[in-house]
Write a structure and sequence with these properties.
It is elongated, with a radius of gyration of 24 Å. The protein is mainly alpha-helical. 42% of the residues are buried. It has a three-stranded mixed β-sheet. A hairpin with a 2-residue loop joins strand 1 and strand 2. It folds into two domains: 207 residues, Cation efflux protein transmembrane domain (Alpha-lytic protease prodomain-like, Up-down Bundle), CATH 1.20.1510; 76 residues, 2-Layer Sandwich (Alpha-Beta Plaits). The chain is built from eight helices and three strands; from the N terminus they run H-H-H-H-H-H-H-E-E-H-E.
Length: 292
């Protein structure tokens, strides 16, 4: 199961990189044709998407490496480092885009747009490609819990609004000569990117600081331990997240009069039940004998 989830993460990374490369090429051509700042903003974002997608793919491949002598718990924290780096890049891009849009909006002689129809066609293609990628990424993120895939998905969801806004601004410029809408759309897109980057960065920081797993997952593990046959009780349940992995430590109380083999099988059964329900976990169970 773990190999399957890793494969899903990597396929999502490859898809993200391929789509980003395609969008960069399309938007470069559209920018040259139209001169629209909304397309320029979208181009910058797609260029950043390409860089962070490549970095994210490399992080996922590295994180999939098995534990070694230097990293006995594996390498999954590389995903959180990549996600944190992604959030910083997005924040910088949002600042650059917002500043450029504000300057153009306040300029006495803003540049005129051209070839709006071609620009709208490119943005429509971008929306279709982005929607297909986001659907796949959301599916993978739900299956694997990967923060890198979630961060990438957020980038592309963030792309949808400025892409739609670019179409609206190009149409308004073509139909009514309202070129200022282009800058307004770019400022809105920058704001959306900044909010999303802060959320992703916060989650990655929490994981790097060994924050607990999601409370719903903790409750699920507690329910399994509480109802598992042969388990008299449990204590010291501790969890921490690293990338798409959740590390679980739990002490279970088992009748001390039972043979060691039976006691081991009880604990092993609970461990496999937790892994079956939450495949992204790494579970260590400590057996504590209960004396009567």
């Amino acid at each position: 199961m773990t190999t399957e989830l890793t494969r899903l993460n990597i396929t999502a990374g490859i898809a993200s990189t391929s789509v980003a490369l395609t969008l960069v090429a399309l938007k470069l051509w559209a920018l040259a044709e139209t001169g629209a700042l909304s397309i320029a903003a979208s181009l910058v974002d797609s260029g950043l998407d390409l860089m962070v997608s490549l970095a994210g793919l490399a992080a996922m491949i590295y994180a999939a490496r098995p534990p070694d002598d230097d990293h006995t718990f594996g390498h999954s924290s590389a995903e959180d480092l990549a996600a944190l780096g992604q959030s910083v890049f997005i924040l910088i891009a949002a600042g650059v885009i917002g500043t450029a849009a504000a300057r153009r909006l306040l300029s006495d002689t803003p540049p005129e747009l051209a070839a709006e129809g071609r620009g709208m066609l490119v943005m429509a293609i971008s929306i279709l490609l982005t929607l297909a990628l986001v659907v796949w990424q959301r599916y993978v993120a739900r299956r694997t819990g990967s923060r890198v895939v979630s961060a990438d998905s957020l980038h592309y969801v963030g792309d949808l609004i400025p892409n739609i806004g670019a179409i609206v601004s190009l149409w308004a410029a073509q139909r009514f000569g309202l070129g200022a809408i282009d800058s307004v759309v770019a400022i809105g897109a920058a704001g959306i990117l900044a909010v999303g980057a802060i959320n992703i960065g916060s989650g990655a920081w929490d994981a790097l600081m060994d924050r607990n797993a999601d409370p719903e997952i903790i409750r699920g593990i507690e329910d399994l331990a509480r109802s598992w046959p042969g388990i008299e009780g449990f204590h010291d349940l501790r969890t921490r997240t690293a990338g798409s992995k959740i590390f679980v430590n739990i002490h279970v109380e088992i009748d001390g009069r039972l043979p060691l083999t039976i006691a081991h099988d009880i604990g092993a059964g609970l461990r496999h039940a937790i892994l079956d329900r939450y495949p992204q976990t790494d579970v260590i169970i400590h057996h504590d004998p209960v004396r009567y």
